[in-house]
Every structure is written in C-alpha cells, then in structure tokens.
C-alpha cells in the first residue's frame, strides 16, 4: 500500500484522509447537521447511566510508563468533554471535542493500537475514554452513528467490567466515535478522574421511560486451523421502567476475534472443540 512505503507516504495518506473527513463534515453541515459544542457547569438533573474504569492496568508486555502517561492524557481530554450538552438533533464527535493530541497541549507518549499491533504515540490511551462514553450511550436510546470496533482480542481479561467487544477505536481524526441525540430532551456528558479511576455519567433533563441491559451470550474460545478466536454474541435489552417488561432484544455484535496474546492465558474451561 502507498501509505506503507515510508514516513512521507504515510503522512500524505493521512493528509488525504483528513481532507476527506473535512469535506464530508462540510457537506453534513450544509445539510443541517450540527455538532455539540456547548459546555455548562450545571449538571442536568437525571442520571441515565454511570460507569467507571481503572486507568492503570497491568498488561503483559506493556511498559508501565505508558500506562501512567495515559492518566495525564485522559485528564487533558476529559476537560474538553466534561459538562458537554448534546441538544436534540445534535451529534457528538469525539475528535471535534478533544482535538488533535499534541505534546504542545501536554499530551504524553501512551499505548496505541494500530493494525492489531501495539505501539506508542503522543496521546496514546484515549481509546479508554471513547470506550467509556460508548458504554454510557449503549445504555441509552441515543443513536451511534460512527464506531470502529477493535477486531482482535489483544489482551486477556484484567478486571473487565463490561462484555468483551463493546469498545471502540479512535485515531485522529478520520477514525472517530460519534452518536446523535435523537431524543426530545437535552443530554449531558460528565467525565472526571479521581484516584486513578476514570468516571463518566450520562445525564438528561428528563428521565427516559426505558432502561437497558447489555449481555454477553455463548462466550467461548475456539481453535480454527491452529489459531484461537474469542467468540460471543452481545445483546441489548430495552426494558420498560414502569412494568419491568422487556420490550426489545437486539443483537449488537457477533464477536469472532483473533486472540493475539499467549494462548496459555486462555482459560481451559472456556475452550470449545470444533
């Protein structure tokens, strides 16, 4: 590929992708799409969903310095989103809020994932913030309009609190995470860090009539031609708050992810013969 022929070719390819993204957004703006840009200090009254995740995790083969730097990067990015109000009809864009992560802004070198390979780069680790926001959105009626799932299983579970496969990749600025507020009320994102933990809340000016449950079913590891894959199905249930009845159950994701870590770390009781 042209982008793999050297650093200059790679930069040219990135510039092309940036231009295509800018043209696409300009066309959307002409058609009436508006991106959320209003931050307020006052919290909206109703909590739709809250979540938290540990920032520094011990990952095999990953320099702990990159994990510590991630805390710095997340603190900088969180300030650009905390308190953001997404009004009815508006779209949230991760990169339009965070902007380009640069050393000048204070971002440090953190862990990056590109083409299923681990690396390091300025601003690395921001996927954790996008993952948290996506989990909040999954537990709401908001519409995800752009998502890029990690295609491979890069690490064994380490204090995982959400079903495998429910994360998202972000890479400035052509690999974005976006959702649209297709409801009839303002919603708000609150993001903060305390004692090494990343916290998030999705707030609303009025409560929604439904709650949501994300489940993982038929989880297993299978070996195909000597290669292990992590497989499962991710569902979302829409549940009436008034009656407790499940209104809808939808398949969100059918995981078939190549295991990229040491096979000896796969739990034997989760391996299924094929």
Q: Could you say which overall geometry the principal axes of the C-alpha atoms support?
A: globular
What does the oligomeric state look like here? single chain
Task: Classify the beta-strand content into a percent band.
Answer: 35-45%
Strand order of the largest sheet: 2-4-11-12-3
Give the averaged pLDDT, no decimals: 91
- Spatial extent as radius of gyration: 19 Å
- End-to-end CA span: 36 Å
The number of helices is: 4
Number of domains: 2
Helix/strand order: HEEEHEEHEEHEEEEEEEEE
Describe the main β-sheet briefly: 5 strands, antiparallel
Helix content: 10-25%
DSSP strand tally: 16
Structural class: alpha+beta
Q: Any low-confidence stretches, pLDDT <50, length ≥5?
A: none
Structure, explained:
- This protein is α+β, with helices and mostly antiparallel strands.
- It has two domains: 1-32, no CATH class; 33-208, no CATH class.
- The chain is built from four helices and 16 strands.
- A five-stranded antiparallel β-sheet has the order 2-4-11-12-3.
- Strand 14 (227-240) and strand 15 (246-259) form a beta hairpin.
- It starts with 6 loop residues before the first helix and ends with a strand.
Structure in a nutshell:
With 274 residues, the chain is α+β, with helices and mostly antiparallel strands.
Annotate the secondary structure layout.
Layout: H1 7-30, E1 34-35, E2 38-39, E3 46-54, H2 64-81, E4 84-86, E5 90-93, H3 94-98, E6 109-114, E7 117-122, H4 127-138, E8 143-146, E9 152-153, E10 178-180, E11 187-194, E12 197-204, E13 210-224, E14 227-240, E15 246-259, E16 271-272
Parallel strand pairs: 1-5, 9-15, 13-16
Antiparallel strand pairs: 2-4, 3-12, 4-11, 5-10, 6-7, 8-10, 11-12, 13-14, 14-15
